[in-house]
């Protein structure tokens, strides 16, 4: 079908983007197919596994459950936006150092959920990390190394702050 | 079978008045969609029957939590993140605040709205037992005006409710008068997050001189829709809590509930757990009322 769809504008990782797609197209599919940002993954496709997690207007969302029309005018942040000027985000460094990533399918969602958690709670207790990541499933690591990665990133951020 | 986005029309009028006019023009033709945590799951699986959807997401007139003298009014568009972060809800409606933290995960709570939770009408809806034992009212709106009905009369059958085809759920009114009541809410699921309730039980009780003066009990996943347990309430009102009254209440509850076997649990497990939850609440009451 070659219907012409109205333009939908979204601010993705700080850049204004415009797509002409069906309004019920999932934000996940728009990110991956139309904007070629393939960091967010499709796992379950029903909001249970968190592998498609992105942030929308500062809130954590499962992009598989967002019809793109509802993202019109929104600020969307994906895992591709975490690194700055070629420098990995402290969470990305910590996941590497602590073995928080194995097969990698859950990792983009884990990173976004962890970044969201640390933004609101820079020094979370283990129970708070468990809750913050409870919507993100990992089938490789057993979660412990992921929790250790978040703890390491939080302490690194603290050291950076003290050094600064 | 994957859903096809091109098969669905979707509009976003952006204002409450715009949505109401649209659905009044063709009653029943448009399916409202708020945070999409239910409808988008059906869409992904290719089983969303609605061909025309109208978005309620971000409509300012629906996104509010207002503290008033008599209670708290929550707009249908308030998300569970809004609810769990609201100081007034935490202070005055602790059962609702707790239920908000149980819904899905952080990423679901930021999208799922309380209005969607009620209109979707799942028998397992997480916010329902708290709203039922707080004796909430729901405010419905259409171009014809607003009307207020008890929430306990909102669900009329499995996934059916009292909304007319041109109406939306506008707000939930929750009175503050339960502050002096003993309150209880427990959900039993497979895990703490991301689990649909196998069983949930909520309760508010006013104890006067060791006697149950007022009691409200409400359950999820024990009937085709979230509902009060009126027979069990009646069996306890005016009674002192003791071994005999607890045993009798368990028997009444087991006769009153209508659980089913499904993918998440069995009817027999649900019945036994529900009775155990009731006994847990009553035992808590008994222990705190017992003379020191």
Largest sheet composition of chain B:
5 strands, antiparallel
Computed structural class of chain A: alpha+beta
The 3D shape of chain B can be described as globular
Residue fraction in strands of chain A: 5-15%
List the uncertain runs of chain A: none
* General form of chain A: globular
Number of strands of chain A: 5
Our Rg estimate of chain A from Cα atoms comes to 16 Å
Helix content of chain B: 25-40%
Strand element count of chain B: 14
The side-by-side strand order for the widest beta sheet of chain A comes to 2-1-5-3-4
For the largest sheet of chain B, list the strands in their spatial order: 4-5-10-6-7
Number of helices of chain B: 11
Strand content of chain B: 15-25%
Query: What profile does the largest beta sheet of chain A have?
Result: 5 strands, mixed
Query: Oligomerization state of this entry?
Result: heterodimer
Give the overall pLDDT of chain B as a whole number.
Answer: 94
Q: State the largest interface.
A: A-B, 34 and 31 residues
Blueprint of the fold:
The complex is a heterodimer of chains A (164) and B (292).
Chain A: E1 7-12, E2 15-20, H1 27-34, E3 53-56, E4 59-62, E5 75-77, H2 90-98, H3 107-120, H4 126-132, H5 144-163
Parallel strand pairs in A: 1-5
Antiparallel strand pairs in A: 1-2, 3-4, 3-5
Helix pairs in contact in A: 2-5
Chain B: E1 9-11, H1 16-25, E2 31-33, H2 39-44, E3 52-55, E4 65-67, E5 71-75, H3 80-84, H4 87-92, H5 94-102, H6 106-109, H7 114-120, H8 128-133, E6 137-142, E7 145-150, E8 155-157, E9 160-161, E10 168-175, E11 182-188, E12 199-208, E13 211-220, E14 227-228, H9 230-236, H10 243-256, H11 267-289
Parallel strand pairs in B: 1-3, 2-3
Antiparallel strand pairs in B: 4-5, 5-10, 6-7, 6-10, 8-9, 11-12, 12-13, 13-14
Task: Summarize this structure as a short list of keywords or feature phrases.
heterodimer, A: 164 residues, alpha+beta, five-stranded mixed beta sheet, 5 helices, 5 strands, 35% helix, 14% strand, globular, B: 292 residues, five-stranded antiparallel beta sheet, four-stranded antiparallel beta sheet, 11 helices, 14 strands, 33% helix
């Amino acid at each position: 079908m070659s219907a012409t769809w109205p333009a939908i504008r979204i601010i993705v990782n700080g850049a204004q983007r415009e797509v002409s797609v069906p309004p019920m197209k999932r934000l996940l599919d728009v990110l991956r197919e139309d904007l070629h940002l393939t960091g967010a993954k499709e796992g379950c496709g029903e909001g249970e596994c968190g592998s498609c997690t992105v942030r929308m207007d500062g809130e954590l969302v499962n992009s598989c459950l967002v019809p793109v029309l509802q993202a019109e005018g929104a600020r969307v942040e994906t895992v591709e936006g975490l690194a700055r000027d070629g420098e990995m985000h402290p969470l990305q460094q910590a996941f590497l150092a602590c073995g928080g990533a194995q097969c990698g399918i859950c990792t983009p969602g884990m990173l976004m959920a962890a970044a969201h958690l640390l933004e609101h709670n820079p020094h979370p207790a283990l129970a708070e990390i468990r809750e913050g990541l409870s919507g993100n499933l990992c089938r490789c690591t057993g979660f412990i190394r992921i929790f250790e990665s978040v703890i390491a990133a939080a302490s690194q951020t603290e050291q950076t702050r003290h050094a600064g | 079978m994957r859903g096809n986005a091109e098969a669905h029309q979707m509009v976003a009028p952006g204002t409450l008045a715009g949505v109401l006019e649209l659905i009044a023009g063709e009653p029943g033709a448009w399916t409202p969609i708020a945070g999409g945590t239910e409808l988008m799951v059906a869409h992904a699986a290719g089983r969303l029957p609605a061909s025309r959807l109208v978005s309620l997401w971000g409509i300012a007139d629906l996104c509010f939590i207002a503290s008033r003298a008599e209670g708290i009014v929550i707009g249908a568009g308030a998300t569970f993140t809004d609810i769990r972060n609201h100081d007034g809800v935490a202070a005055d409606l602790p059962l609702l605040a707790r239920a908000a933290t149980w819904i899905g995960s952080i990423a679901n709570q930021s999208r799922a709205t309380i209005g969607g939770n009620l209109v979707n009408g799942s028998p397992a809806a997480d916010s329902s037992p708290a709203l039922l034992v707080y004796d909430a009212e729901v405010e419905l709106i259409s171009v014809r005006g607003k009307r207020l009905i008890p929430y306990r009369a909102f669900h009329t059958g499995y996934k059916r409710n009292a909304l007319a085809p041109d109406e939306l759920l506008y707000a939930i009114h929750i009175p503050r008068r339960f502050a002096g009541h003993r309150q209880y809410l427990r959900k039993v699921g497979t895990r703490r997050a991301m689990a649909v309730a196998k069983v949930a039980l909520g309760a508010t009780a006013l104890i006067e001189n060791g006697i149950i003066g007022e009691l409200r009990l409400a359950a999820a996943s024990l009937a085709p829709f979230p509902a009060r347990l009126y027979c069990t309430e009646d069996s306890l009102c005016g009674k002192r809590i003791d071994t005999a009254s607890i045993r009798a209440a368990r028997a009444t509850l087991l006769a009153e509930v209508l659980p089913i076997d499904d993918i998440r649990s069995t009817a027999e497990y649900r019945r036994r757990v529900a009775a155990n939850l009731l006994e847990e609440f009553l035992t808590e009451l008994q222990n705190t009322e017992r003379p020191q």
